[in-house]
């Protein structure tokens, strides 16, 4: 008597057999680069990333995507999603033991990287296999070794470097404040013309960390100390006191804080507030070119300094196309892609690439880029640079700001 396999069981067996051919069943960090390129050719790479900046989106869609197709035969699909939602998706897939996932590359850093690493949501160390990283980056740079205090261990590749600045309308403000104390005086003298995003929002949280740094005896008291080992109470009390003192003079008397940087930028572009802020010291340049920000927009930093960080690209534990992901990341780290990103037309952010390791012709092209009047000099930015604190401060600020400022 013949035994027949039920159709649904046959289908499940076929799916299981197909899943065995997924590229994530092989350790691609042990393969040659030629083998990786060959395996990437003709595949699709799904890049999941925050999509809230049209200039960044344009850079990916109009430059990276066609170049990847031409150079590697890789079809890049950009999927806009906030990073915590991306990690939640990966967590769900991990709990379901989904080894053939839906994400190939993630744009990530900070507390999101810490969470991804701790929950084993990432592929593991891969940067040693990337030719462009090893040829054109100072692989020993401390900025690439830790990410908001978390050891990187090759699990993410440096994609960009940003520094926090404030933007202002120079036709309305002659001398921007130089310290947090001067900012407090300016806010009192110009009620309703300043605000900052909520602590849950990345930019708003960064502004609050600047206040925290300023209230410490030295900024290093924060960024060199793990939160659980730091007696932060006196500094925290001064921080909440400062924020409560300025609240009544903020936009809408502090009864509403912008939910996003996009909302704050809109208030600035409409003249409701006279300052905005954000990571990426040159981000105003493209917004000026697009007519979103007034041409009189300039930027400034305040004492004791300006927080900067590196942001990265990483690969999930269950990327279905690991060679394609490696090829895409390698291209995005290339001198040509970094040069295009450095230009103010779309993105215009700084680069983590090592200029000393660049060919002379590319080096000259970088130096020839006009970043616009709204961008501070490299010297001023470097002099004001402050490292990030460990990621635990981000969540701590979210909770404490709500309790100590919003609810009071």
UniProtKB/TrEMBL annotation:
The alphabetical list of record keywords is: Signal
Which top-rank group of organisms is this from? Bacteria
Please list which residues make up the signal peptide. 1-17
List the SUPFAM superfamilies hit by this protein, alphabetically: Periplasmic binding protein-like II
Give the Gene3D superfamilies listed for this entry: Periplasmic binding protein-like II
Specify the protein name: ABC transporter substrate-binding protein
Question: Which species?
Answer: Halobacillus faecis
Traced from the root, the source organism's taxonomic lineage reads:
Bacteria, Bacillati, Bacillota, Bacilli, Bacillales
């Amino acid at each position: 008597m013949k035994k027949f396999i039920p159709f649904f069981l046959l289908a499940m067996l076929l799916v299981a057999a197909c899943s065995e051919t997924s590229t994530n069943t092989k350790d691609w960090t042990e393969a040659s680069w030629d083998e990786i390129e060959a395996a990437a050719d003709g595949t699709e790479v799904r890049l999941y990333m925050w999509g809230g900046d049209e200039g960044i989106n344009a850079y990916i869609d109009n430059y990276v995507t066609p170049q990847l197709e031409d150079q590697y035969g890789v079809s890049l699909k950009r999927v806009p999603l906030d990073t915590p939602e991306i990690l939640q998706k990966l967590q769900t897939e991990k709990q379901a033991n989904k080894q053939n996932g839906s994400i190939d590359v993630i744009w990530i850093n900070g507390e999101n990287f810490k969470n991804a690493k701790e929950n084993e949501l990432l592929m593991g160390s891969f940067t040693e296999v990337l030719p462009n990283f090893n040829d054109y980056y100072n692989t020993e740079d401390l900025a690439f070794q830790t990410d908001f205090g978390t050891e990187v261990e090759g699990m993410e590749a440096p994609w960009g470097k940003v520094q926090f600045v404030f933007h202002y309308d120079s036709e309305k403000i002659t001398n921007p404040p130089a310290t947090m104390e001067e900012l407090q005086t300016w806010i009192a003298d110009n009620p309703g013309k300043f605000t900052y995003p909520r602590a849950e929002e990345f930019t708003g949280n960064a502004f609050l960390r600047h206040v925290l740094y300023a209230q410490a005896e030295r900024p290093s008291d924060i960024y060199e100390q793990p939160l659980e080992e730091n007696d932060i109470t006196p500094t925290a009390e001064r921080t909440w006191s400062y924020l409560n003192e300025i609240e009544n003079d903020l936009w809408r008397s502090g009864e509403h804080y912008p939910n996003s940087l996009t909302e704050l930028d809109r208030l600035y572009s409409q003249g409701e507030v006279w300052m905005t802020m954000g990571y990426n010291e040159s981000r105003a340049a493209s917004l000026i070119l697009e007519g979103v920000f007034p041409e009189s927009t300039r930027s400034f930093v305040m004492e004791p300094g300006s927080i900067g960080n590196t942001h990265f690209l990483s690969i999930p534990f269950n990327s279905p196309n690991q060679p394609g992901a490696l090829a895409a990341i390698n291209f995005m780290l290339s001198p040509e892609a970094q040069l295009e990103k450095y230009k103010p037309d779309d993105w215009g952010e700084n680069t983590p690439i090592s200029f000393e390791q660049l060919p002379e012709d590319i080096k000259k092209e970088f130096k020839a880029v006009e970043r616009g009047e709204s961008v501070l000099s490299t010297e001023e930015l470097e002099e004001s640079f402050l490292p990030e604190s460990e990621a635990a401060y981000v969540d701590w600020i979210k909770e404490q700001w709500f309790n100590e400022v919003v609810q009071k």
